[in-house]
Amino acid sequence: MIVPDRWELRLTDMSEGDTGATAPYTAAARARLVMAYDACVLADLARAAVPIGEHELNSDGTTRSPGAVLADAARVLAAARRFFETAAVFERVGGADWQLIGDILGVSPQAARVRFAMAETGFREELRRPEGTGPTEAGEASRLRAHMVREPLETALDLDDWVLRHQDGDGDLGTTPVSGGLARTDPRRHAERQP
């Protein structure tokens, strides 16, 4: 998985089976985890824009790298849009109807549906896709998202570490601020649905 502070691919051997998990995580837990990851990326990108580098400005106040700050802001905006979209997907997967989403955003239910239905459909398709078949979208980011949906525990543990490294007077978050909140499917209901 990509660890946002280091922006490098880190694969681990841990899967749900390695920890004695008896039931898979719910679709809403997986959607919330993707949203948490997007919030993490957004936070790191925004935080990186705060310091003013020693050699960023010329002595006359002009920039040494025209366009660099605007490019950084564009990356923050793109990350904010992804976070916004995954928040809507989480709300839908968690049971919110289009009326509620439209009301929160100040748009009609139809406008909310037009804006987010494709993202929701893509997420739900990823949940049903057999492991190893890959995402429908090309690119490293979509492969990472597919991995997060199929192996949520690995992502959650990485995000636990990220939250604990970045807590700033947030009170006692415990040792599992992300993974501890993930809901699992009731094993009895899961077993009833298996052929």
Evaluate the radius of gyration: 19 Å
Low-pLDDT segments, ≥5 res? 1-23, 190-195
Q: Output mean pLDDT.
A: 81
Portion in strands: under 5%
What class, by secondary structure content?
mainly alpha
**What is the overall number of helices?**
7
N-to-C CA distance: 32 Å
The tally of strands reads 2
- Measured as a percent range, the helix fraction is 55-70%
SSE pattern, N- to C-terminal:
EEHHHHHHH
Strand order of the largest sheet: 1-2
Largest sheet: 2 strands, antiparallel
Shape: globular
Task: Record the SSE blueprint.
Blueprint: E1 2-3, E2 8-9, H1 27-48, H2 68-93, H3 98-105, H4 109-128, H5 140-150, H6 152-166, H7 187-193
Antiparallel strand pairs: 1-2
Helix pairs in contact: 1-2, 1-5, 1-6, 2-4, 3-4, 5-6
How does this structure look, described?
- With 195 residues, the protein is mostly helical.
- Helix content is 56%, strand content 2%.
- The protein contains seven helices and two strands, in the order ββααααααα.
- It has helices at residues 27-48, 68-93, 98-105, 109-128, 140-150, 152-166, 187-193; strands at 2-3, 8-9.
- The chain has a two-stranded antiparallel ribbon with strand order 1-2.
- It is globular.
- Residues 1-23 and 190-195 have low confidence and may be disordered.
Question: What are the defining features of this structure?
Answer:
about 0% strand; disordered C terminus; about 55% helix; disordered N terminus; 7 helices; mainly alpha; two-stranded antiparallel ribbon; about 200 residues
